[in-house]
Specification:
There is one protein chain. The protein has one domain. 87% of the residues lie in helices and 0% in strands. The termini are close together.
Length: 68
């Protein structure tokens, strides 16, 4: 499984989601209006990255079940 490039890409996508989440929470914790706007923007990016990660995971599972 670790030799499968699609698995590695999906894992990197998941780690990217976690990194964006941590940055967004950290920015939100600082306080201030500028931080709130930046945190809000980061959370939107997290949603997009999470959608990509879920799609990659589903593609990986589909490919594995089909024997690919």
């Amino acid at each position: 499984m670790l030799n499968d490039p699609l698995f590695i890409i999906a894992a990197i996508a998941c780690l990217t989601v976690v990194a964006i989440l941590i940055l967004g929470i950290g920015t939100f914790g600082k306080g201030g209006e500028g931080s709130a706007k930046r945190s809000n923007k980061l959370m939107r990016y997290r949603i997009y990255a999470q959608a990509v990660a879920v799609a990659l995971i589903l593609l990986f599972v589909f490919m594995r079940r089909m024997g690919g």
